[in-house]
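Weekly modeling sync, notes
Attendees: S.R. (lead), two postdocs, one rotation student

Agenda item 3: backlog of single-chain predictions. S.R. asked that every request posted to the team notebook include the full sequence so nobody has to chase files. The rotation student volunteered to paste the first one in as an example of the format we agreed on. Action items at the bottom.

Example entry:
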Amino acid sequence: MSMHVIGIAGGTGSGKTTLAYQILKMFPDNATSIIYLDNYYKDQRHISFDKRKDVNYDHPLAIEHELLMDHINQLKNGNNVDIPLYDFTLHTRSRDTKLIRPTPILIIEGIFALYYEEILNLLDLKIFVDTESDIRFSRRLVRDMRERGRSIDSVIHQYFTTVKPMHDTYVEPTKKYADIIVPEGGRNKKAIKVLHSYIDRIIEAGD
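Predicted structure, as returned to the notebook:
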């Protein structure tokens, strides 16, 4: 089986996950799988909870990208992998894992999906989701408070001390590697139609 790997990058709250799900719905069941870079945050169980909260999770070094690259290669070679899962309430990896099987389409979604050169070389299609910073911040604020147990003060502090400067330094520049730039992510219906046609052509050419 030929596997086609799609990378979806963009800032926090840009709509990457929504876009990934829209692509997932384009194809038959079991044709597509998604790996989220967030699950590859390094294990922090060796340090205290208070120190974990101070880790800069918006720096590329926070991601164990070597493990991700190994998992992508294993899937491309037809092997199953057990990917890590991350517990955002504890700021460390869960002890659970998730089984991912090879599928014709593999989506890699995360802010650094287009950052690491080794992973860039494994991507058949590179997408950058481009959304205004005010919209991204408001989405992150709601998400972190509802889903990750954060206080409004902690979200605002983290955004302006690490999230925004790291985005400007490491995430935004990866836009230049994108084959396609999608404004507003999964909410852009016209872009999704174009993507559907484009991905179909990639798959047909690869087969």
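Discussion: group reviewed the output briefly. Residues 41 and 63 are 4 Å apart (CA to CA).
Action items: rotation student to repeat for the remaining queue; S.R. to check formatting next week.
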